[in-house]
Fold these 2 entries.
Entry 1:
Amino acid sequence: MFHIKEKQEQIRDLLESLKEPIILEKFEQDLAERPEHILEIDEATEIAVERYYNAKQREEMAEVERKKAEKEALMQGDNIGMRGLKYMMGGNELIMKKEKNKLDEELVREDWMNKPEEEMNEDEKQRLKEFEQRLKDSIEKQRKQWLVNLQRVRNEIIEIKAKFEE
């Protein structure tokens, strides 16, 4: 189940990159596979009783809540731990995000490409067409690579399921 969930996260990232709807197959254990379910408490059968707190307990709870709010307010300021984590990870949470942005960085539009076509000479028009074609090819190549990876990960899930059944 753990390996399948990891693969489904990869599928989710790939589908997000492809801008397709995210539809994932659900995998759940049967009750027969979880004998500890007998000890679980169901909210529908649980009797709810509101706990009574005396004045002293309410004051203590208010004090704890106030201290917690103060601590959270301090944490909202300059948080060295989160800054260190972002710096350590290079500002990116996933490698997939880096790959997504790499495509944008690879082909950069030059300033002269932004002027109207009437003001361009023949050489600039030709280079602009070549740039647009390279950009289109690059996008299509990346899309094909994502589709191949998506199919590979789905096949890995099928293999995991087959090994488990064996």
Note: The longest helix spans residues 122-165.
Entry 2:
Amino acid sequence: MSNALAILLQEQPMPDQYGAAAGAFGTAFMIIALAVGLLLIVSMWKIFTKAGEPGWASIVPIYNMIILLKIVGKPAWWVLLMFIPFVNLVIFIIVYIELAKVFGKGAGFGIGLLVLPFIFFPILAFGSARYQRVA
């Protein structure tokens, strides 16, 4: 009986198919996420440029929100509201709707910017939309 127990307790080589599949999935997910991130960065850069602001400002944290508020004609102190939970959701909705409006789009497009940014930001950046200065 001790021989049978020793055989059962021996380590058996197991195929690592699940680990390989998880690794492949993780790698594919990371590549897609990086591509979407790069698309959004390039789109924001182009939107800032269309609005007459420096494109590099789109990649500087916090400063990019100040410039975005300037583009849509809102006061810079609103950036503080973006750090308050739940209030920031309302502020982002307002800012994205105003962003759509200053580029000649409607409120529905602004909601699209919020819900599907990887689709609507490139449309705004590379489409025919033109910036209309806020008075």
Note: The chain has a mean pLDDT of 89.
